Amino acid sequence: MENRDIHEDRWLIQQLLCRWCGLVDQHASNSMGEVFTDDVIGVYNGMEVPGLKQLIDSGNENMTRDTIACTKHNVLNFRIEIEGDAAHCVTNYYAVHQGAGDFAGEIYSMGGTMTNCVALPPVGASIGETTRRSSWRETTE
C-alpha cells in the first residue's frame, strides 16, 4: 500500500500487541476479535490453535478467574519489519499469574518470544498468525 507512514504503522502494531495483553489480563477472551483476524493461526509452545473461535474458546478455558486471580502480560523489544500492507513482528514477552481457587497463593511466571504476522488494511491492524515460544518458567510450587 502506498502513502503509509511506517512510524505510524509501527506504533499501531505496538499498541495492537499491548491491547492483546490487556485483553488477556482482563480475562476478556471474547473480545479477541479486536486484535485477531477470523482465520488467525495461533501456535503456543508447539500447540496449534486454528481460527478466532478456537482461540477465544482456548482463552475462556485456560485463563479463567477460577484458576487465575490476576495476571499481567507484557511485550517488549519490538522488532518490526513492514512490507506493503503486512508486517512481521518479533517481541519478547513475560507474564506473571497469581493463582485462585485450588491455586490460591501460587505465583506462576513465564517468558519467551512471540512472533506475529500483522495485516495492515487501510485503517487499523490485526494479527493473522502468532507463535509464542516460552523459554523460561518459574512457579512458587
Summarize the structure.
The chain is of the alpha+beta class.
Task: Fill in the keyword field for this structure.
141 residues; alpha+beta; six-stranded mixed beta sheet
Give the secondary structure arrangement, pairings included:
Elements (H helix, E strand, L loop, with lengths): L5 H20 L10 E9 L2 E4 L1 H11 L5 E16 L2 E14 L7 E13 L6 E14 L2
Parallel strand pairs: 1-6
Antiparallel strand pairs: 1-2, 3-4, 4-5, 5-6
Description:
The termini are far apart. With 141 residues, the protein is of the alpha+beta class. The model has no long low-confidence stretch (mean pLDDT 94). It has helices at 6-25, 52-62; strands at 36-44, 47-50, 68-83, 86-99, 107-119, 126-139. The chain has a six-stranded mixed β-sheet with strand order 2-1-6-5-4-3, covered by helices on one side. A hairpin with a 2-residue loop joins strand 3 (68-83) and strand 4.
Largest sheet, in brief, is:
6 strands, mixed
Approximate shape: globular
The total strand number stands at 6
Q: Can you list the strand order of the major beta sheet?
A: 2-1-6-5-4-3
Low-confidence stretches: none
Count up the helices. Answer: 2
Q: State the end-to-end CA separation.
A: 51 Å
Fraction of residues in H or I helices: 10-25%
Radius of gyration: 16 Å
SSE string, helix = H, strand = E?
HEEHEEEE
What percent of residues are in strands?
A: over 45%
Quickly give the structural class: alpha+beta
